[in-house]
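User: Show me a protein chain along with its predicted structure.
Assistant: Here is one chain, sequence first, then structure tokens.
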Amino acid sequence: MKVIIKHTGLVILIAITFWSCRELPQYPVVPSIEYRSIYYRETDTTNYLTIEIDFKDGDGDLGFNSKSPADVREPYNAIWYYSNIDDGSLVTYADRSTPSYDTLPPYQYPYTCINYSIEEADTFYIERNPNHYNILVNYFVKKNGEFTLFDWITWNPPNCGESYNGRFPILNESGQTKPVEGTLKYDMTGLGFEVIFKRDTLKLEIQIQDRALNRSNTVETPEFVLNNIKIN
């Protein structure tokens, strides 16, 4: 059976609380989060696994501007390329035949999904940049009583997938440094959740990150089975 997971869009719905100047609370500049809920629903076109978390941040520097080129540049770029020490060209798989680069991973699974990118008829060595995202989600599956990480990038060899890490928009559009708090509702969309996990017991770990690259605490969902958290 062919299983299809479609990352058709990462939808963030945000409820934010602001205060007048006389009422400003004091929160740390490192964001903090609390778990609120998780649920699963199906439609005719896709399925949604949705998490809700409450957040607080002392200086309000949360979110990316999807229309700003600066928000896909360093340090928020998606991937890192490496320059050849001899001539400054980008390191490719062909460089693996030279002594300086003979420790690069081979062009075979899973490294084809993790460390190489084919562009313009060449194969470049890359590393993925976790700071491209501001919400980080890890899936864990319970097997023989123990939870193990489920890697969406390499779960279906020899095919390569994408993680469910995402980018939510600017939360404080005032341009001023001030605290924010609210609720993030994060829809992870796809076809095939139930085919992959069936009646497996799952849990998720979630973090958020601000523009200064401060990461929040990590929260966990309760253990769940998809059918048990399904809503209409």
